[in-house]
# Entry
Amino acid sequence: MSERLLSYGEAIDEAIRQEMARDPSVFMMGEDIVGAAGRPEFWENLGGAYGGNRGLIVDFGPERVIDMPVSEMAFSGAGVGAAMAGARPIVDIMFIDLIGCCYDQLINQAPKIRYMTGGGYDCPVVFKTSYGGRAIPGLPKGGGAGVHHSQTMYSVVAHFPGLKVLTPSTPYNAKGLMTAAIRDNDPVMFLTHRFLGSVRGHVPEEPYTVPIGKADIAREGEDLTMVSIGGALPLCFEAADTLAADGLEAEIVDLQTINPIDEQTVYESVEKTHRLLVVDEDTPVASIGRDVAARVAQNRFGYLDAPVTSLHSADVPVPYSAALEEHMPPTAEKIVAAVNEMLVAF
Amino acid sequence: MPLEIDRDKLLWIYRTMQLIRRFEEKYLELLNSGVPFGTGHLYIGQEAVATGVSAHLRTSDYIGSNHRGHGHCLAKGVDPIAMMAECYGRVTGTNRGRGGSMHITDARLGVLGVNPIIGQSMAHCVGAGMAINLRKGDDVAVSYLGDSAVGCGVFNESINLATIMNAPVIFVCENNQYAVTTPVEYAIAGKIIDRAAAYGIPGVKIDGMDVFAVYEAAGEAVERARGGGGPSFIEALTYRYEGHWIKDDHTKYRTMDEVDKFREQDPIPAFRSRVLAEQSLTAGDLDGIDAEIERLMDEMVEFAEASANPEADELFEHVFAEPVAGGQS
# Structure
């Protein structure tokens, strides 16, 4: 493992930069990804809502790093069209909360291109967006972004066959998955957690890929499987440490790709541990967390020593006040409590 | 004014309009007799538009289409035999039986697809235009839309984006005056053509029943786009002779007098009279094309009838480019 430390955000930006250098058909477009569009004297100051693209335009020019007007529908569709016409666009949608403005392209167009054309067209577009934002104890920033800038809602894009949906949660995997996403010939939604941006980890400098559709065993254990989705990973680690102090070893399966789901890795873990808790920061109804729980209940019932359990955010819109918001998402304490309840009952 | 179009192009124009007409009539006849399954939105009456535009396009140019897209595809060169097989759901179809009438595509011809979600293919064409600019090419993308798309949000976003990106896109609005049963004067505020001025792009309103008018306007727009002059907007006033879709009884929302008024302006006999009057083509030329198309229609139906359906185990093919590690449903 590389000794070099990068943040999650830096790791993703490095992947984009390396792939743009490698392949001239890769380009990036989105709102304010450069900032001050058409005014080069300001470009050094800016570079995306999170600053990650700073300097990208200097290296690759305004033909390949393109600021978009506030037109999610048009530029998401332009991403699909450009991908069909031989380019490899990365479409930056600032917040997942904005996808209502371009949902047709995400659900009716991009995922169906290959299938409905009988394999006639590739559609190698990456939709990059950010989710989460609630006040989560233990994570670096507070919330308070309100109901339209804080949602998780990845489950509503994971429903559609043909669209790969990634929720990386470590700098190493984020870089490898972004590289894989750009090289992939199918449409990929690459979802970054807003609070993981500054989390640091070891990241090799040379380009590498992490396989799409493969879960990651983030921690090995014998007594219980925790399936972690996206931003839940730090919470699962914290809870696993607490449980370990009581002699209970949790295995953490970081799902990483929420469509299609790596059932096999989840099943193998449950066959070993006989218990499953899914930790999913999305709200519970029609969620990926409950989907994973249901698959295990349906297909590995005989291995289970306890009912499958899933932990989600409260089934409410995201409130503004931190006094309310902090009660909404899963926390390490809630995870520990859910595990203890599972063990007491069985 | 005598025609300044060479003989080969005139033959192509006639053949293309007649092919579209006969394909659609054959499809209607087949559906009414219950032969293929599925549905369709017929292009009959609008042939001059796709033909006059496509006369300026080459294989590497792109088109994006709407639900009424058979004519756009045939004019761009899609094989009618594979297209009818697709309408039958056969494995020999353009989309291997996965698309049907409302999703005809052909990647080899830049046909980005018939697309029945109104207006969304406009954005695809902007993206194709951006990809052309990225590779410094001189291809163009033609975005076909109907009058109903003018009321969609994606209409504004796409033309605005194409304009600020200087994308080589020709927006061809086929104003056939109805969105299903809703008349354009009810649904669309102001004049459609006035939109072009709002974006500061060239716009022209033409008689979409006159293939020569379409040919001239499209020629200018395509040449401008190829030369780096950016997008243009064309409003072609036209008319569908049939209902919105195969089973739609259009007499419930418009008069036959109105339908007949447009039928009298039918682009195919009008073309025939003009080229014969000007002695650009002979009756023998045109009759020869008619006979050739009739043979093709027979061959097309025979092929579709004889073709196999996709095998059931193809159901899971082409969801992704390759099987995904660990991914199971």
In short: The longest strand of chain B covers residues 169-175. Chain B touches chain A through 55 residues (CB under 8 Å). Chain B has one domain: 7-316. The two ends of chain B are 65 Å apart (CA to CA).
